[in-house]
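Hi all, long-time lurker, first post. I run a small reading group and we've been trying to get comfortable going from sequence to structure in the token notation. Rather than ask abstract questions, I figured I'd post a concrete chain and ask someone more experienced to write out its structure so we can walk through it together at our next meeting. Sequence below, copied exactly:
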Amino acid sequence: MAFTHRLLAGLLSFVVAAAAAQVQTVDAPPAKAAICVACHGLQGKSAQPAFPILAGQTSRYMYLELRDFQEARRSDPLMSPIVAGMTRDEMRELSDYFAKQTPPVQAFIADAAKARLGKLKADETLCTMCHLGGFAGQNEVPRVAGQHYDYIVKQLKAFKARTRTNDAGSMTSVAHTLSEQDIDNLANYLAGL
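-- Answer (accepted) --
Happy to help. Here is the structure in token form:
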């Protein structure tokens, strides 16, 4: 009986130590992340449809976007002033942190008929050549799976209108061919993934 208690106490100590080690390895958010929370939510899990979800986004994409805001290749009345004084290291640290976070499960319920048409349009325009299967993104190409519907619509319209052009022309040329209905369908499809 004493042996069993010692064995259980030893196992419990091991489990507690292992749990403590896991907690210690969790990355704390960078200091600059505190300002991001207002719009992008805790851990980059924005609940506000106008602001993109950063959790799970590719680090390289986020870094390039921050740099583009800083160097006026992309403009936003909220983002541009925030990144103005950031160092490259701070931008990399933020990008790495948000890339490590798990994207939230979206509450968005896609219109099934629109999502089906959106998938057909995505296949027709070869979206997965850049965004990859599952729309998880890669390198400087963003993850768009599960992004907010409103944000997807806003960005596709900005690329179509050429008010957002920091994409080396890839998205502007694709978006130029999209109708308003195509944009709605694509947003339903992508937000629903």
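A couple of things your group might point at:
Confidence is low (pLDDT under 50) at residues 3-25.
The chain has two domains: 33-99, 112-191.
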